[in-house]
Amino acid sequence: MRESQTNLAGDLLLHLGRPGDGPLHERVKRALRTAIRDGRIEVGTALPPSRQLATDLGCSRWAVTEAYSQLIAEGYLEAQTGSATRVRWTSALDAGSGRRAPRQAPEARFDLGPGLPDLRAFPRRRWAEAVRAQVTTTAFAEFGYPPPGGHLRLRRTLVAYLARSRGVVATPEDVMVCTSVTDGVRRVCHALSAEGITAVGCEEPGWTRLREVIRAAGLDPVPVPTDGGGLRVDELAAHTGLRAVLTSPAHQFPLGSVLAPERRAALLRWAHQVDGVVLEDDYDAEFRYDRRPVAALQGMDPSRVVLLKSLSKILSPALGIGWLVAPPRWTRYLHRSDQAATQPPTLDQLAFAELLESGAYDRHLRACRKRYRNRRDALVQALADQLPGAPVSGIAAGLHLILRLPPTMDTAAVVTAAAARSLRIADLTAYHATEDHADHGLVLGYGNLADGAVREAVRHLCGAIEECR
What we know:
Radius of gyration: 27 Å
Strand order of the largest sheet: 4-11-10-9-8-5-6-7
Number of domains: 3
Largest sheet: 8 strands, mixed
Strand content: 5-15%
CATH topology of the largest domain: Aspartate Aminotransferase, domain 2
CATH superfamily of the largest domain: Type I PLP-dependent aspartate aminotransferase-like (Major domain)
Order of helices and strands: HHHEEEHHEHEHEEEHEEEHHHEEHEEEH
Structural class: alpha/beta
């Protein structure tokens, strides 16, 4: 039972019914019992003092103390001398009702799933200092509703940072702050729909969630094959009427390839020919180990590329901070539609701007790059030692790699067997939108894997693979 001060019931909404429904203390008791059994008052919650609740309900203090006493006798509440009266009953104890408390799936002990950075390395102190600084120094006018498009300070800072680190060409008016890449894609899709665009080409294989967002926005996600050179740009002409495509040119997910230089140029030519737009998902371009950095495609043609980015792969998805950089043709609609759009809290936007301006964000990136490189090396070595002959690919950058398995092996069964060993992995085939593919293997993320757990995680992976041979 929780005893923290955060578990106090300050204002308590109770439905006492009508005066004809019985004595007042009985009505208070029934209302409290109903609120507890419905889960509106959780186990361990401290109820208001009887005098306070009586004032709130407009009744005598005796009616409240009598209701408390009866519920204590029934086991719903408990009281200790010198402490508040707290809720004791929980639905998990009500075996006779046939109801069970909801159970959460156990967290995997070994996280080899893609999509997360090292959550242990979140810069708690720096983030707390940045937030604290904004709370104490921000003008009172900033505590109103956030301006559409995001705070101007953050947008200006992002323009300078993206130009320096990614070769992006933009003005603050081209930048819109959103909550994630998913949110950015959703907004852009609505803008595309308003322009009469009905489909978006998507990398095959590719990130499943973005295809779902495109479909939910009323557009058709069209699979476009990828290979070792990234998106097969030559395949776009086969889809008549296609004018938009979503791609990750710096580091394709999940295959890990980089869009070849000749394909980058060809993709921009295609966008001009069809009067279209390229949606560039720049999700983890900062993490490269064995190759030179690749500039954002947006810098080659700002008039035809929408750049999408978030902090989900760098700091944490829990922050809910992302941004998009769009050509003026699209920002006009985006700004109009942003009036009711959700965006990160102003204080968080300013805290992130502080990290960028102070250099703390760059220092965090450098530390993460070194940590992930060492962890990738350890994972590749452990796989070579314990699974000799199993090829790996996509290791030059990012936070994941591909482990190829024999075509006869049921990779979905391997994922299930790994889960039974408290190991989270992903099936490569799960990222395909069609059945016409030869990919066969596992996607292994190492962003959120503890350094000391690499070899043991691979040992459990080997056990799952052996079980499914």
